[in-house]
Write a structure and sequence with these properties.
Blueprint: H1 2-16, E1 43-49, E2 58-62, H2 63-66, E3 76-89, E4 92-99, E5 102-105, E6 111-118, E7 122-129, H3 138-141, E8 144-151, H4 155-159, H5 166-173, E9 182-184
Parallel strand pairs: 1-9
Antiparallel strand pairs: 1-8, 2-7, 3-4, 3-8, 5-6, 6-7
Organism: Salinimicrobium catena
Protein name: Collagen-like protein
Amino acid sequence: MKPIYFLLSFVLIAFTSCSDDGEIGPQGPQGPQGEPGVNIAGTVFDVQGDFTDANEYTLFVDFAEFTDVEVLESDVVLVYLRVGTDGEAGGEPVYVWRLLPQTYYLEGGETMQYNYDYTFFDATVFLDASVDLATLGPEFTDDQVFRIAILPADFAQDTGVDVSNYEAVMSALDIQESEIPQLELQ
């Protein structure tokens, strides 16, 4: 009998202890200023260089030399190759960019590819080919311009942007062509 009496008392107390909320009180004072957040905007810069036997047909980009943005291990690095121009806008050339890797088909069924890899410290752009790289013409090796975009890990997910579409990435980052630093690799 005691357990039933105890249970009934508990249920009765639980139902009678609940009441309607009172009126909403006045707003409290402003809290202290929080610490500044991290820079979630992407960073974009151009690098130009030559692929030679001396650099083993590789362009090495140390992020610390070109930007003060901390690149996290989870961030995404995209590299685009400037492949030409498509007219002018405001007296300036409109460049055509393609996301790496880019494969070119050479005479005799041979192939050559621009590719890259990266860590959160650096990026390496390199040539790979089914032919001796020393036989490639200057159109593939000299004065090559690459645009490197460092994006927060959740950038593509949060914005829904197609990262293979250069124009969509630049629009989502709200970066103008004139704001992109031009750097030459030695």
